[in-house]
Amino acid sequence: MKTRISITVLLMGLITLFAHAQTDEPHFELTSAQAQRLMQEGKLTSEQLVNYYLNRIAMYDDGENGLNAVVQLNSNAIAHARTLDKERASGQVRSALHGIPVLIKDNIDTADGMANTAGSHALAKHFPTNDAPLISALRDAGAIILGKTNLSEWANFRSERSSSGWSGLWGQTKNPYDKTRSPCGSSSGTGSAIAADFAILGIGTETDGSVVCPSAFNGIVGFKPSLGVVSASGIIPIAHSQDTAGAMTRTVADAALLINLMASESEDNQQTTLPDLTKHLRKDGLKDKRIGVVRSLAGRHEVVDARFNEAIEVFRERGAVVVDDLSLSRGDMGQHEYTVLLYEFKHDLNAYLENAGLNLTLTDLIAFNRKNKAIQMPYFQQEIFELANAKGSLQEEAYLTALAESKRLAGKDGIDALLKQHNLDLLVAPTTHAASKIDLINGEKYLGGASSFAAIAGYPHITVPMGYVHGLPVGLSMFTGYLGEPILVEAAYDFEQASQLRKAPNL
Length: 507
What we know:
Elements: H1 7-21, H2 32-40, H3 46-60, E1 70-73, H4 77-89, E2 101-105, H5 133-140, E3 144-149, H6 153-156, E4 166-167, E5 171-172, H7 188-195, E6 201-206, H8 212-217, E7 221-224, E8 244-249, H9 252-263, E9 290-294, H10 302-317, E10 321-326, H11 333-355, H12 362-371, H13 373-376, H14 383-389, H15 397-421, E11 426-430, H16 452-457, E12 461-469, E13 472-479, H17 485-499
Helix pairs in contact: 1-3, 3-4, 11-14, 11-15
């Protein structure tokens, strides 16, 4: 069912590539700022840029040996690019994203003829009539929604034995650094696509790890903002107490810019307004920062730990004060979180389906999967669906207790307590391990990660490339207290500029 690219578009893309070769700057892995400069100088148009990415998608994403990261293309993208080029020619530039292509995860509503499917055949014909607020904000800023990316089906909340990046509707996404290895999830397609340079910017969503893990596995920057900074409306949900969209880009600067503009029209962020994050892109951003090293979130692999120790030395060289050997205690946090997610998934998904006019419930989806087992459950089952469907209302004591306890352990008695005890600005840890092998039969091997505390507490978390383990990228996590995004941008940008560790995959 994947949208294919026409011969005409492919030829246009090849012509564009040839034209690009005549300019002074390569267009491979452009940043937003670089693309804006080229367009302002008349060396590039938005239409050419769209065609450049369509060509790369045709070359490296489609077919048996492709990455299978981009699963739908926006048929309006070229027309939209032409409109934006005309606006630029008349002197109107809406923002720093004017004419910039963006890929979004296939669980976000767009009113442009693309289905919002969560990777399930059950929603293959679900065509939203309204943009999610974050999409409206991006369109108003002049961004071009280029297409939609694959995901772990239902954002990895159907089975406990799933394969990240696999969905019944779209199949398996691959890691561009090694196609036999996992892209992590659930924002698998966005991570793979941005690493492969299929667009300048990407958007994922996270409940716990679904932005930062695929960003780390695919060697890019992933930025999960504080809960409520970006509206979660129009996103197929798991849990309102943790869900948020996030930025997935190749640079910290682009991640900061994208969070700024996604947040600009959030309908539920009255108390969560951020300052302009681009003003915090400081090359002295680590100077005098007090950084806590959370060793309890490390120790999964000796080479990952070696890269982590090298990153800590960069902190010291850049003038940070490092407080080492700290620990965060999980206690029963994971168990409480799972209870919360099961309760909220049933409630929130049923509400989304009703508001979308789909005449479906979680009960109906379970029945659909059983009836269509050959295409929906060829490798793993739907035990999470069934567990969630057995839960009661959000007024039940079991839910309320789990919610309060998970928030306390992650926030007040977790991140907040550690920051306060040692007078710290932020905490750091390896984001996760290097990518494991894709295993559709048994589910992938996941050794753990640093996402849960910030995810459960609703606090910001950014991951940046910190090197490679046997050719596979690994990420460095930075997280802090609620609305601490400016602190993270300062630290992450300085580290990125000082280390320059990211290398493009060889496709």
